[in-house]
C-alpha cells in the first residue's frame, strides 16, 4: 500500500510546488504588466475606478510626447555613461584582478581592502565629490559621471574577476608561455576565453549598477547630462504626478537592461556560479 501511494504523494507535492512557483511568478510580474499597460492608457483610463486591466485602445501618444519633448535623451545619456564606464571598469579591473591572482600584488589583504571601498555608502562621499567636481568644472558633464562610475565599479570588477581568474589552471598559462606566447597573448588567448562567462556576468551587473544610480546623477548633473533615474523624478509633482509619462519612460528605461540580460543570459548563471565567492 505504501509503495502504491508514494508516487501519488510525490505527484501532489510536485503539483503544489509548480502551483506555488506559478503564483509567485504572477505576483512578481504583475507590477511589470501594470506599468506596461499604464503606458498605453489615456488619463481617464489611468484614474478609472474600478481599474481597467486592459486599455480600451492601444495608443502611443505617451511615448510620442517623450520623443517630442526630448525626454528620451536621458536614456541616451544613461546608455553613454553606463556603457563607457562599464567598459573601462571591465578592462582595467580585469587586468588588476589578473595581477592580484597571478603575481600576488599587494599581498594577501589588498583584495579585501579593494572590495571594502565598494562598501562605502555613496551618501557619505557625495558632498566632498561634488565640491571637487565644482572646483575642476566636472559638474554636468559626461566625463565626470563616467570617471566616478568607473571608480566605484572598479572594486567590484576586481573582486569578481580575481575569483574567476584564480579558477583558471595555472598549468595552462605555463604551457602557453613555453609554446612562445608572451604574457599579453596568454591573457587574451588563454585567460579571457576561460573566464568569459564570469566576464559577461560581471559586465551586466556593472552596467546595471551604473544605470540605476540616482544619488550621484542627481547631485552632479543639471541640464546637459540628465540620466534616466533623475528624469523620472521630474514627473512627480507636489500637486499631481504624470503617471502616463512615468510609465512610458519606465518602459523605455527598462528596455536596455532587458536586452542586456537577454543577450548575456547564457553566461549569467554559469558566470555567477564560478569562483567569485573565493577570498
From TrEMBL:
It is a multi-pass membrane protein. It is found in: Cell membrane. The chain crosses the membrane at residues 15-36, 72-98, 119-136, 142-159, 199-222, 242-264. This is Carbohydrate ABC transporter permease. Residues 75-264 form the ABC transmembrane type-1 domain. CDD domains: TM_PBP2. Belongs to the binding-protein-dependent transport system permease family. PROSITE patterns: ABC_TM1. InterPro entries: BP-dep_ABC_trans_perm, MetI-like, MetI-like_sf. It holds the Pfam family BPD_transp_1. Its main location: membrane. It comes from the Bacteria. Keywords: Cell membrane, Membrane, Transmembrane, Transmembrane helix, Transport.
Amino acid at each position: 500500500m505504501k509503495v502504491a501511494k508514494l508516487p501519488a504523494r510525490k505527484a501532489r507535492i510536485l503539483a503544489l510546488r509548480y502551483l506555488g512557483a506559478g503564483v509567485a511568478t504572477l505576483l512578481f510580474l504583475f507590477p511589470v504588466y501594470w506599468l506596461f499597460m499604464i503606458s498605453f492608457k489615456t488619463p481617464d483610463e489611468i484614474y478609472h475606478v474600478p481599474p481597467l486591466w486592459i486599455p480600451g485602445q492601444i495608443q502611443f501618444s505617451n511615448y510620442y510626447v517623450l520623443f517630442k519633448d526630448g525626454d528620451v535623451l536621458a536614456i541616451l545619456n544613461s546608455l553613454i555613461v553606463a556603457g563607457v564606464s562599464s567598459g573601462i571598469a571591465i578592462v582595467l579591473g580585469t587586468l588588476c584582478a589578473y595581477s592580484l591572482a597571478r603575481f600576488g600584488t599587494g599581498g594577501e589583504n589588498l583584495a579585501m581592502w579593494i572590495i571594502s571601498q565598494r562598501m562605502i555608502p555613496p551618501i557619505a562621499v557625495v558632498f566632498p565629490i561634488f565640491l571637487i567636481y565644482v572646483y575642476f568644472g566636472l559638474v554636468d558633464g559626461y566625463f565626470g559621471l563616467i570617471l566616478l562610475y568607473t571608480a566605484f565599479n572598479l572594486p567590484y570588477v576586481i573582486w569578481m574577476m580575481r575569483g574567476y581568474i584564480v579558477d583558471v589552471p595555472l598549468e595552462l598559462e605555463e604551457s602557453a608561455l613555453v609554446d612562445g606566447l608572451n604574457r599579453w597573448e596568454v591573457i587574451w588567448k588563454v585567460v579571457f576565453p576561460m573566464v568569459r562567462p564570469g566576464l559577461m556576468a560581471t559586465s551586466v551587473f556593472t552596467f546595471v549598477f551604473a544605470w540605476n544610480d540616482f544619488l550621484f546623477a542627481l547631485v552632479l548633473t543639471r541640464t546637459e547630462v540628465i540620466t534616466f533615474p533623475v528624469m523620472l523624478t521630474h514627473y512627480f509633482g507636489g500637486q499631481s504626478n504624470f503617471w502616463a509619462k512615468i510609465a512610458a519612460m519606465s518602459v523605455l528605461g527598462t528596455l536596455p537592461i532587458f536586452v542586456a540580460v537577454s543577450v548575456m543570459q547564457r553566461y549569467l548563471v554559469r558566470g555567477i556560479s564560478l569562483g567569485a565567492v573565493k577570498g
